[in-house]
């Protein structure tokens, strides 16, 4: 399974846009405009600086194209047709494709003994396109898989208002087989991790073609990409920002 450099995607409280303060939701640390700001220059100096930035941005775009080209040349591995628990009964992995041949699975962190889904994964699901049918037009199905019992997943899905298919891997070896659960040693973290699996259905058999976790998930998080292009970035404590720029704990 492919992984990327840390830190992983930020949790909801750290990345969501400012919302009105309520008794059960404190005001976001980003609710007020920071005092720091870039220096003011004339139009000519700004255009010159912007042109230099565009050069850097194009390097990122071309690097992304090279990575995508390599990704399309990866081999694939067959995956067992696991039988998951769905809201309407047992669901095999192959059935998650519906009438399509491509499947994107979000491996949502929701441990068997948890009462709520991971805030970071919840935020990531909230980032999904509102017009999910657009994926279908490209031959791509979408589903979520977690370890928690299906009753807990259904309750959290309804609480969040999500329409997506969500199945439970409880009773299967799916999470352990493919590294979506860590078994920490010497006090290390034990539990599920977030990420995405990309599958191909071919002649009735399911194949894994790509997987990513940690910061590799950011490619499909549009709000994170938007934040990166604002003057203050994500305002996270790991970012390389000018002195005086607001920075908050990544998992605040």
How would the blueprint of this fold be written?
Elements: H1 12-15, H2 43-71, E1 77-79, E2 83-86, E3 89-92, E4 102-107, H3 119-126, H4 133-137, E5 140-146, H5 150-160, E6 165-168, H6 174-177, E7 181-182, E8 191-192, E9 195-202, E10 205-213, H7 222-228
Parallel strand pairs: 4-5, 5-6
Antiparallel strand pairs: 1-10, 2-3, 4-9, 7-8, 9-10
Please give a structural write-up.
- The protein is α+β, with helices and mostly antiparallel strands.
- It has seven helices and ten strands.
- It has helices at 12-15, 43-71, 119-126, 133-137, 150-160, 174-177, 222-228, and strands at residues 77-79, 83-86, 89-92, 102-107, 140-146, 165-168, 181-182, 191-192, 195-202, 205-213.
- A six-stranded mixed beta sheet has the order 1-10-9-4-5-6. A two-stranded antiparallel ribbon has the order 2-3.
- The longest helix is centred in the first third of the chain and has 29 residues, at 43-71.
- It is globular, with a radius of gyration of 20 Å.
